[in-house]
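Lab notebook, bench 4. We co-purified these components, and the gel suggests they stay together. Before we commit to crystallization screens, I want a quick structural picture of the whole thing.
Request: model the full complex, all chains together.
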Amino acid sequence: MAFLCKWCSYTGADLAGTSRMEYKPNVHAIRVMCSGRIEPTFVLKAFRQGADGVLICGCHPGDCHYQEGNYKCLRRFHLLKRYVKQMGIEPERIKLEWISASEGKQYAELVNSFTQTITELGPCHIKETMEVLT
Amino acid sequence: MAEEKQKIKMAVYWGAACGGCCVSVLDVHEALFDVVAAADLVFWPIALDTKYQDVEDMPDGFIDLTLYNGAVRNSENEHIAKLLRQKSKILVAYGSCSHMGGIPGLANFSTKEEIFDRVYHDTESTINTERVVPQPEFEVAEGVLELPVFYNDVRTLADVVEVDYFMPGCPPQTARLVEVFTAIVTGAELPPPGSVIGAGDKAQCDECSRKKTENKGVKKFYRPWEVVDDGETCFLEQGILCMGPATRTGCDFRCIQGNAPCRGCYGPTPDSTDPGAKMMSAIASVIDEKEPVAIDKVLDDLVDPAGYFYRYSLPSSYIRRKMS
Ligand code: SF4
Ligand code: SF4
Ligand code: FES
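Here is the predicted assembly.
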C-alpha cells in the first residue's frame, strides 16, 4: 500500500508508468493531496485490513505544495515507527521517501527495494491476529 | 405519588473492573433516593446479595436497564455479559473498560502466558516450586471445581454482545449518569442504538479553559513532575502530554480542573475511531523540529507512546493487542 501526495510523488509515480519503467506490481497506490494529509489512522487501517507494508511518499523537504505538510508527515512517521515497534510490528514495514515529480526512476527503484524488504520480512499477520479473539 | 409510577428494573454489573464505576453509581449521593424511587435494583453485586441464578431465572427482557462496567477478561465476564444482554431491554457499556477496554485492556500488551508467568512464578514475592497455576477445572472428592477461563485478549463489551449505548469515562461523571438515568425513566427519546451517551461531541481542547496560542512549538516533552505547571497555559504547550486533542468532552474537565493533564478516559471524538492515532497526529503537529535527528530527540522524551496514547482504549483500537 502506498500513499502518494498528488503534487510530487504521484506525478513521479505516473512518470515511472508513462516512461514504461518496470517495477513490481505489488503496490497499490493511493493519491492524497499532500503527505501531511496522511493520518496515522490511514496507515494503521491499511495494516488492519491486510497490508504487508505501507509506503509514504511526499515532496522533498522545502518543496511541499502546502509548505509544511511533509514535515508534519515526517514527524508522524517517526512517531508511528516507535509505536508499531512497541506493538511488535517490524518498523521496516513503514517507509517514508521523498519523490519529486521528475523522479520516476527513483520511484520505480523505491517500489522494487521496498517490495524486496517486505518479501524478506514475510507476510504480516496483523489482520488475522486482530480479527480472532483468543 | 412515586408509588403509582411503574418503577423500572435496573441492574449494574462489573466485569474486569476496579469497582470505581459501581462507586460512581453510589456517588449520586442523596439522589440515590430518587434512583431507588424510580428503579428497582434487581442485580448489583457490589451492593446486593443477588446471585447469578436469580438473573438466570428472570424472563428475557425483564430488566429495563443494565449498566455493564468492566472489560471482558475471562469466561465469567463473557457469560454474564451474554446473560444480561438476553435479560435486558437496554444494555449500556458503562465506563471506559466496558467501552474501550480501559486500564485492564493494557494487558493486551502481554499474552496470557506472560501474565501467568509473571503472576504465578516470577514476581519477587512468589515461591511456587510446584509451579501451580489456576486450572479451569479441578477434581476433588466432592466433585469438579470450576474457575473462569482466563482469555489471552481483553475484550470490550461490544466484542461479545450487542451494546445499545456507550457511556464513557473512568468512571463516568456521576452528573452524566443522573442525566441519562432521568432520560430513561422519564421515557425521553433516546438516541439511536450504538450511540455514545452521557458525553459531549467536541474534543476537550475545543472547550478547555487553559490558554492556548496558535503557535505550539514544542522542543521538549516533560513528565508532569519535571515541570512546575503555571496553572493556566495549555499543558501541551508547556510540553506536558495531554490527551485533550483526541478526547471527547463530557467529564467537565475533571483532571484539567485539578491541574492534571487529560489522560483520555472519555475516549475518541466522534470523528475518529482510534484515539491513539489521532493523538499521534496531534503530537506530530506540535513538535517544532524538521530534521529527523532532532525529531527523534524530542520523541525520546515520550517513554511509552503506545501505553500513553492507548491508555484506556487498546482493545478497541486498530492494533488492539501486541503482536507476538
Ligand atoms: S491539550 Fe489539554 S490543556 Fe491543552 S487545550 Fe487541550 S485539553 Fe486543554
Ligand atoms: S480530563 Fe480526560 S482523563 Fe480526566 S476525566 Fe476528563 S476525559 Fe477522563
Ligand atoms: S504536497 Fe507533496 S508533500 Fe505536501
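The pocket of iron/sulfur cluster (ligand 2) is lined by residues B 170, 247, 251, 253-256, 262-266 (CB under 6 Å). Worth comparing against the SEC data before the next meeting. The interface with chain B takes residues 39-41, 44-45, 47-48, 61, 71-72, 74-76, 78-80, 82-84, 86-89, 125-126, 129-130, 133-134 of chain A (CB under 8 Å).
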